[in-house]
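queue> holo job accepted (RRO)
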Amino acid sequence: MRLDTELFGVRFQNPVLLAASTCGFGMELQDVIDVDVLGGFVTKSVTLEPRAGNAAPRVSEFGAGMLNSIGLANPGLEGARREKLPWIAANVRRAQVFVSLAGHTVEEYFQLVEGLDDADGFLGFEVNLSCPNDAKRGGPPFALDPESVSRIVTGCRARSQRTILAKLAPNDPDLPNTVKRATEAGADGLTLVNTVPGLLLRTDGAAELGAGPGGVSGPALRPIGLRAVAMARPHTTVPLVGVGGVFAPPDAVAYARAGASLVQMGTASFADPRAGDKLARGLAKWGRHNRVPSWESLVAKGAA
Ligand code: RRO
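queue> job finished
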C-alpha cells in the first residue's frame, strides 16, 4: 500500500504524525527514534513566555488510557526560536513539522505567529484552541467559543502564508458550526481532537494529578475522536487530522474511513517512542494483506 500523501502543497511520506506534546521539539527523542521515518510531528505547544508546567504528578494511567495535566510546559517563544527550531531546521529532512501555538488571549496567538513565522524548519502551525489544562487562562478553551475560533484563525491566517491547522475540542456542543467557522476563517486543515476533560481520584479523595483535573487520552478517546472526524467531514473540504487512541493499523484505517487524511499518535508513543514508526510499517503490511493500493484510497471525501 502506498502510504505517501500530498497535502498542503507538500508530500507526507506516510500519514503518521506524533501529536503535540508527545515528542517535545523532536530533538528530545533524537537518541530514541529517527523522527525522519515519520510522516511528521507536532511540537509542544509554544506560549509567549516560558512555562514550567503544572505540579507533579502530571500523568496518570487508568484502565482505558491516560489522564494528563502537563500545563503547557515549554521554553516560550524566544526559547523555541533560539534552542529548538534551529535543531529542527538542521536535522529534520523528510518529516513535516507543525509548531503548536497556545495563547492565553486572542492577541497572544497573533504575537506567536508574528514571532515564529520567519523561522526555518517547519511547514506550518497547529493552532491549539483546545487545551483543557490552562490554569493561567481558566475558563473553557477558545475552541468552545465559535467567535474566538473565528477571530484567532482569521488573525493567524492574515499573518502567515504557512499551513494552518486548528486543533478543536472533543466536547464541543456544536462541532459542525465550529468546523464551518474555522474553515471560513481560513484554516487549511483541522485537527480533531484534543483530550477530554477528566478527573481521577484516590480512595482518600485526593486527585491523582498534582493539578487536579486533566485531559483523557488513549483508547478511551478513540470513539470520541472518530465521531468528531466523521461529524466534521461533511461540513468542510479541508483535510482533517485524526487524533485519539491511535495505536494499531486498524485504528488509523478507521480514522481514514471517517475522513482523516493524516493521523496523530499521542498516548501510544508515550508508552513506546517507536510506536509511530511501527504504525507506519504496520499500515504498509495491513495494505498488502488487504490488497489496498494506497492510504489515499481509504480516506473518505469531504464536502463537495
Ligand atoms: O499541556 C497540557 O497539559 C496539555 C495541552 Br497544552 C493540550 O492541548 N492537551 C492536553 O491534554 N494537555
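queue> The mean pLDDT is 96.
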